[in-house]
Amino acid sequence: ARHINSMFHNFYSFCVFLPVEFDDCAGNEDVRFEVSDPSFYVDGDLNLVPQRDVLYSSPLLFIHGLGAHADDMAQVEVTGLPGQLGHSLRNILGLGQTLPYRSKRSLLVPPVIVTENQRAPFPRIIGKLISRDEKSGNHIFRLTGPGADQDPKGLFTIDIDTGDVSVSRSLDREAIDSYQLEVSTTDFAGNVIEGPAILVITVIDQNDNRPIFKERRYTGEVLEGSPTGTTVMTMMAFDADDPATDNAALRYTIVRQSPDNPSSNMFYIDAERGDIVTAISPVLLDRETLPTTTYELEIVAKDMAGSEVGLTGTATATITITDKNDHAPEFTHPLFEAYVYEGSTGVVVNLTVIDRDDPTTGAGRALYSIINGDPAQSFEIQTNPDNNEGMLSVVKPLDYEATAFHTLLIKVENEDPLVSDVGYGPSSTATVHVTVLDINEGPVFFPDPLTVTRMENIPVGSFVASLNATDPDILQMQSVRYAVLRDPAGWLSVNPVRGTVNTSSPLDRESPYVHDNKYTAVFIATDNGSPPATGTGTLVIYLEDYNDNAPYVVPSVARVCEDAHDMNVAIVGGRDKDLTPNAAPFKIELGTQPGLDKTWKITRVNSTHSQIMLLHSLKKANYQLPLLITDSGVPPLSNSTEVKVQVCVCKKNKMHCSSAHSHRASLLVLLATLLLALLCKYHQNHTHVEKMEGMVYFLMTLFKRGLILK
User: Which sign does the torsion angle of CA 242, 243, 246, 252 carry?
Assistant: First the structure.
């Protein structure tokens, strides 16, 4: 029955108030009824009866019937109330709104409750407005607001004559859980007679939403040996239904555990909070004895507080049992052996260990150390990250003749400290015997390099140095022979037996093969072992300077204007390939030819440079000025050289110099022409010809020496 009228009386707990008709078409098995007023309930015979003495009641009661096959609600209108109309209406609805507004001539606007997801037919009457206008029939009802003439439009309508409020289609509480509209009555001209008043339509929730987990899979981890009741993770689902009802009251359960040993109930989930905790003893929660380190739980969240009619949602929780360092690493053998050739380096043996902890964590990763037997630090041990083995390496070449056998003591530990009740035992140390194998080693030069000092230009065959190469294989009594391996200038030879080095060519400090006064050669020594072994040594000869290079003058060309007031021609300097004291200070002076000091003058500027000056002006031409430069060696070396002086015409900051040969060269041509003419004139007189030839030779000699400049 959608609407039931009942006259109010004083009800007592033994009275039957009203029979209720409900049919779910399946025999009404497991149907549950809820009454909006807690003072009433529906008994097994479908009668609405009071639970205690009731002295007053609300004007409206609602009965909600819910079963596996049906979900419906009925409204009970209670009339004949003694004075307190609507006293507990807000408690019935749980909305907290004020009583319907009334004006002087007010409408009676009871709130309306509508269940969501109602089925056709539509429209369906859900409430009725009562007009207090005495002139019934002279007014019409009007309904406005969201759901009527505003979006969502047309959801609710009102019969303008009777005031019946209808819903035109099914409602969804999760979209809109209540509507607030205005109702009024007007005359036919549109003038308001009653109202406006507020009509509140509340949408009652149905269990039409399943619980939903935010993720399909959740992951968590717990340390092995954790106490029973240790929280691992929390599962959380969401239900879009009304959180104030059982429709959104969730309960969590574990429906499957994989694998299911050593116990099928290793974990427990708090039904209301969703906390997953350990339910197994710490002794059994041992990562090294469990069949797997990962367990998968299927979690179900059910609404309706977990009742059979509740809707469910499912998610998976994957729990990893993490490792703690409760097992010390142990060597697989107490003794390891290795063999290595002397002089070599690298890995000589791999040490294997067993550790039951996780090798990918600090509880299982091994750290090795040499605790005895390596005073020279010739060995090193590192962890192989691929297999956790200890790689023992030789980092300093071993010498068979010094020590042929080494005994090392190796210790293994974990990166993480062990738990308090576990310690390292004897199996965490091992001994390694390293045997050094002999090889034929090459001779060794000492010292290397060998440095000696010699004067350059010493006679060929002079003694330079004596090489010393010894064979490390002292037990084999082998002989050594010497040879030149690299001698860039080809200056040296070596006695193959004694190792004495002598010069085979003069030593020249100024050679391009000498750098910073040092000449470097490399020698090789070979023993008579089988097979023969070789060694190399370096000889560095520091060459002392000898005054074997004459100095020279720079620059070789100078220019001067013919009308210059400044008679300074140029400053020339001395250069010498030799070193001090066989070089500067230099003495620069005019050549010894007669007459030079009438035109030229040399003045010393410093220890390396001198000033060339003119004593009078010269015409535009090229002149060759002979100079003599002498170094400071003992004995000193001198060099006769020439400087070409170009006397030029200078105009507008430009110098116009002669491109012809110097005067000396022009005079040579003139003299040669003159002498040839004389020879032709006196060719019949052989005596005169001989005299002319002698004169030509004499003049040319004077010219070459710079005595003739004009």
Answer: positive
Pair 570, 643: CB distance under 8 Å? yes
CATH number for the domain that contains residue 360: 2.60.40.60
Q: Is there a contact between 438 and 340 (Cβ–Cβ < 8 Å)?
A: no
Q: State which amino acid sits at residue 61.
A: L
Q: Is the pTM of this model over 0.90?
A: no
Nearest-angstrom CA–CA distance, 467 and 443: 12
pLDDT of 208-258, one tens digit each? 999 999 999 999 999 999 999 999 999 999 999 999 999 999 999 999 999
Cβ neighbour number for residue 698 with a 10 Å cutoff: 10
In a domain, 701, yes or no: no
Contacts of 5 (CB under 8 A, 6+ apart): 77, 79
Chain segment 585-622, per-residue pLDDT in tens: 999 999 888 888 898 999 999 989 999 999 888 888 89
In angstroms, rounded to a whole number, what is the distance separating the alpha carbons of residues 494 and 468?
A: 12
Residues 175 and 263 reside in one and the same domain:
no
| 651 pLDDT above the threshold of 70 | yes
Q: Which two tokens stand for residue 600?
A: 């030229």
**DSSP conformation letters of 56-90:** ---SEEEEEEE-SS-EEEEEEEEE---S-TTTTHH
% of the chain residues with pLDDT over 70? 85
CB atoms within 10 A of CB 398: 22
Domain span holding position 307:
212-322
Among all chains, which residue has been given the structure tokens 């720079």? 554
- Secondary structure of residue 353 in the 3-state scheme: strand
Name the domain count of the chain.
Answer: 6
Backbone angles phi, psi at 167, to 5 degrees: -105, 140
